Amino acid sequence: MKLKQGLLVLLAAFGLLLVTGCGAQKETSAEHPEKEEKQKDVTLKIAASSTPHAEILEFIGPDLENEGIKLDVSIVSDGIQTNQQTADGELDANFFQHTPYLEQVNKDSGLDLVNVKGIHIEPFGIYSKKIDSIEDLSKGAKIALPKDPVNFSRALELLAANDIIELDESKLGDYVLADIVTNEKKLEFIPVDSAVLVHSLDDVEASAINTNYALEGGFKPLEDSLIIEGNESPYVNILVSRKDNQNDEAITMLAEALTTEKVKKFILDKYKGAVVPAF
Fold this sequence. Notes:
Radius of gyration: 29 Å
Number of strands: 13
Strand order of the largest sheet: 2-1-3-12-4-13
Distance between the termini: 86 Å
Shape: globular
């Protein structure tokens, strides 16, 4: 009898342990969804030009954070280096360049970065501190142009479109100085790093400047430029990533957030036509 009672006590104790164990398991499961939610949070490292790219990213940041995506934005100081860092995985994406520039970098540096989404156009313009009209360019005037091949060609195309020079009609794009067939004012074109073109205005009569740098320099492109590209410009600024992460959920959500009606309104309201949505 005593043996039977002892067995019953042991079985009861074992049952209590099982119940307690199951309870602990349930408690852990109740906490697990929170842990799963934290695991969903993603930080995207992205390099961008300060204006307007980083400003647009700052605008959409809170909405993305609500979706579990935090943006870690750094400012681009060197385009070639930024693309290399993206290719190497130090950055998840970048947002500062247009399609022809990316294509040239991929070709020159052997990279394989991809265009995820076209976001906006920054009409390219000619600026001056010394003259008020493009017709006032003096003979032999020095004009600073972006030194990278793509934007150098773009600047020559803008000047040709406004009858300042004539380019070789047998060629289409990728223009260099040798492609200028008419230069009546004998203008001298000086290649300068894009980031310092605004500062070059103290030393030259005019400079061809990307809109993001013009905005950083305090210019109002539509008001202050001597001439400026129209909205039909093919130089769309793009979100760029690698092939191995271009379809990642976080990158896809970033691309979608950059191309909403809310962002379109922000661009139009803030930049007054100096930056034009491309979606």
